[in-house]
Request: fold
Amino acid sequence: EIPVAKQLASQLDKILVYLEKATPVGLVNGNKMPLEDYSEINKQTKLKPGDFRLTSYEWGVTYSAMLHAAEVLKDARYSEYTLTRLDFIEHIRPAFKTLEEQDRSFKSPLHSVLHPKELDDAGALCAAMIKAQKISGNATYSSMIDHFIDYISHKNFRFPDGTFARNRQHPNTLWIDDLYMSVPALAQMGSFSGETTYFDDAIKQLLQFSERMFCPDVGLFMHGWVLDMKHHPAYYWGRANGWALLAMVELLHVLPETYEGRHGVLEIFNQHVKGLARLQSGSGFWHQLLDRHDTYYETSATAIITYAIAWAINNGYLEAKEYGPATILAWNAINSRIHTKGQIEGTCVGTGMGFDPAFYVHRPLSVFAAHAYGPVIMAGSELIRFIEKYTVKLVENAIQVYAKK
Reply:
C-alpha cells in the first residue's frame, strides 16, 4: 500500500509511547526503592530497570533518531525523550565517577560511559550528544562529548595506518560495524567544532575500511577482516552493511560539498546502494545474510537501509523514480513488524564476527534486541519527508514515484 503521513506518524507514536515506559529515567537504592536525591548515590544505587540500557550504542542510535523525528514531525515529545535521558546521564555521572575513583574495583552503572573500552561505548552516544547540544544550545554535554571524542581520536586501538581495529575474536581484526561506531561522531565533531581533522579522520576510515572490506563485484561489505588471513571469507551480514551505509549518510550530511575526499565517499555509497537494491526480497525485507535468501528477513537491517536510501533521495543523491519504490516496499515490510503496543519484531540480537554461515543463520530474534528501534524511527520519519516531497502511485500494481506538480 501507499503509506500516508498520518499513518506513518501514528506508528512512530506507538514506538515512542512504548519506549517512554520501557526506558524509565531514575535511580533505585539497594532496596529497589526510588532514589530522588542524587547526593545519596552510593555503591548500591542502580538505574531504574527497563527493557533497554540508556547508555548502549543502540540507544545512542535511538537518541539521534528521536531528534530526527522531532525535526520532521515538529513534535517536541521526541526531542524531549532524548534530552531528558541525556540530561539524566549527565546529572548522575559525577557521583558515580567519584565512587569509581574512590574504589577502583567498583563498576558503576555508568562504567562504560566513564571508561569506554571500545568504539561501541563511545561513538553513537557521542554523535547523539553533539546533535542534542546543537539543538539545546547549552553546554550541558560538552564534558561528555570531549571525553568520548578523546577516546575515539586518541585511545581506541588502530592499525599503523590509522584504521580503527579490534582484538576480538582475533587479534588485529576489522569489523565493518565500526564505521558507524566512529564516523558519525567524527563527522558531527568536525561540523560542531570547525576542526577539519575530524572530517579527515572520518573520510580516512571509510576509504581504508572500504579498501579492505568492500567487494565491488557485488557492491557489499564483508562483515569481518583479519590482518593475518591470506583469504577473507565474505559473509555479508545485513545489519553490518546497514551500519556502513548509515555511516556514509552521516558523513555526507555534514561534509562540505567541495571537501576533498567527498567524491570518493559518494562513489562507494552509490555502489553500495546498487548492491543492496538488487538483493531486496519481494516482500520488501533484506535478509540476515544479504545474498543468502535461505536466511530470515531481518528488521533492523531493512530499516537502516530504508532510511539511508530515502535520505539520499530526499537530498538529491539518488533518483526518486529508480529507488523510491524500493523504499515504499521496504516500509510496508517494516510496518508489518510493529506491534500495536510499539514493540518491534524480527530483529537479530547482538552479533559478533563469524566465518561460517550457521553463526549468522541461527542468531536469535527478539523484540528486546535494541538495534531496530532507532532505525525504524529514522526510516518512518524520512519516509514522511519522502511522501511529502514526491507523489507515489500504484500503476498496474507497481509502485511508481513522480515529482509533485
Remarks:
- The CA atoms of residues 184 and 250 lie 5 Å apart.
- The chain has 14 helices and eleven strands.
